Amino acid sequence: MSGQSLFMCNVHASQNTAASHYQRMHIITNTHTHHALTIGLNRALNQGFLRHEAAKSRLTFFAVTPAREFNQRSLSGRIIFASLNFSLLLEIPVHSGQSAPMQGCLGRVSWLAVFLGMATAAFAQAWTRLPRTELYGNEYLRLSQWAEAYKFDLRTQGDTAIVTSRWSRLVFKADSRQAEIRGVVVHLSVPVARQGNEFFIGTMDVATVLQPLLFNVNSPKVTVRSICIDPGHGGKDPGNLEGKFQEKRYTLLLAQELQKALKAAGLKATLSRSTDIYHDPADRPSIARRQKADLLVSLHYNSAADSSARGIETYCMTPAKASSTNARGEGTNTGAYPANSFDPHNILLAWHVQNAMVQKLGLPDRGVRRARFAVLRFSAMPAILVEGGFMSNPADMARIADATHRKKMAQAIADGILAYKKAIESP
Question: Which residues pair with 201 in a beta bridge?
Fold first, then answer.
C-alpha cells in the first residue's frame, strides 16, 4: 500500500459491543492526541465514513469509500492511511481494564484530523459523479443512487421517500418543496420529482442543502467569537402592528435577551441598534462588518392575513439561480450576491437555530426557508433572519409579549448558534 503513515499510541477500552463503544475509548497520550483522535473518529462514524465491528479481543474500524468498502487486513494496532484513496483502517486490541500498548513510536496526530477531514470531504463529494436527469426544466439526481453512494437506506411509501442512516433521517414527498432533514422542516429550491417508484432530488438541493447539513462545513480556520444581533425595524419603521403592539419594540427586547445569553456563553455580542432608531435594511450588514462580527442574526416577528397562521421560521440566503421559498418560482435568473459565498454556512447556521427553537420551545416548525432579504443578500458573513412567531395570531402574540417566553426563545437561539459554532470549529 503506497503513501502509508503510521501513528501508534496506547489505548484503554472496555470490552463492550455497544454502538457507543468508541465513545468510551481513552487515548493515553497528550491532550492534543486525545482530542484529535476521538473527535476524528466520532465525526467519521457520524458521517458514515467509518463503520466499526466489536469482537472479543479487538475493536476494528473499517473505512467505507464511495466505490467500495476497504476491508483488507490491518497490521494489529496500527492506523494505516493510503493517500491515494483516503482509505483508513484502525484495529485496536482490547483487554478489559488494561492498557493495550501499540507497537512503534508515539507521534503527533495533527495529520490524523487533517486526513480524516480530507477523506470525509472526498466521500462527501461522491454525489458529483452521479448521472443527471433533466425533468420539468430542472436538473435532478435519482434519490436511490444518491442514497446508495452514501450507504443510506431508502424506502418508499406511496408519495413519500424516507432515507435513513444510523444517525440521520430524511423525509421527502413527491411534488413538494418541503422536506424533513434530521427532524427539521427544510424548504427546497425545486420540488421532489417522482416517476413510477423512482424519486428524484434536485441537483441544486443536493449541493446546497443535503451536503452541508449531512456532512457539516468544517472550517478549521473559521471561528465564531462575535455575533451582531440585528433587531428588525426601528424608528420610523414600526414593522408589523397589532393593536398597541409594535414589532420594533419586541425585536429589540428579544435582541437584548439574546445578547445576554451569548455573553454568558463567553461570546462577544453587539446590537445593530440599541435604541428606537432606524437603519435601512441594506445598511445593517455594513454595521455588522464594522463591528467585526463573525455572524449576523436578524430578529423579526411575522404577520399574516390568516390569524390561524403560527409558528417559527428561520431564513437564510437563496442560492444563485434558485427561487426563494415564498417567490412562487420567480428568481431563477437571479445571479449571485456577496452572501452566496457563505451558502454552506448560511444553511447550516439556519438549521441549527431552527432546530434549537423547535426542540426547546415546542412551537410549530415552519422550517428553514430561503429569501433574498436585503439584510441577508449584502452580508459579508454567514447570516440568518429569525421570524419568532406571528403577531397576527393571538396565542403567538401573547408569547411574544411575555418576558419569560422571550428569555427562553433568546436562549434557544443562542443554543443554536453555539451548536453551529461547535460544528464548524471541530477538527
Answer: 141
| Average pLDDT of span 138-162 | 96
51-74 burial by CB neighbour count: b if 16+ within 10 A, else e? bbebeeebbbbbbbbbeeebeeeb
- Cα 293 to Cα 269: distance, rounded to the nearest angstrom: 8
H helix or E strand, kind and range, residue 344? helix 343-361
Whole-angstrom distance, CA of residue 339 vs CA of residue 182:
25
- 10 Å CB burial of residue 98 (0-12, 13-18, 19+) is exposed
279-333 pLDDT, tens digit per residue, is 999 999 999 999 999 999 999 999 999 999 999 999 999 999 999 999 876 788 8
Longest Cα–Cα distance of the chain, Å, equals 75
In sequence order, which ranges of 203-314 are alpha helices (DSSP H)?
203-205, 211-215, 247-264, 284-290
What domains are defined for the chain? 6-126 (no CATH), 130-215 (3.30.457.10), 226-425 (3.40.630.40)
Can you read off the three cell numbers belonging to residue 319? 442560492
* pLDDT greater than 60 at residue 38: no
What pLDDT score does 59 carry? Answer: 42
Q: How far apart are CA 343 and CA 210, in angstroms?
A: 12
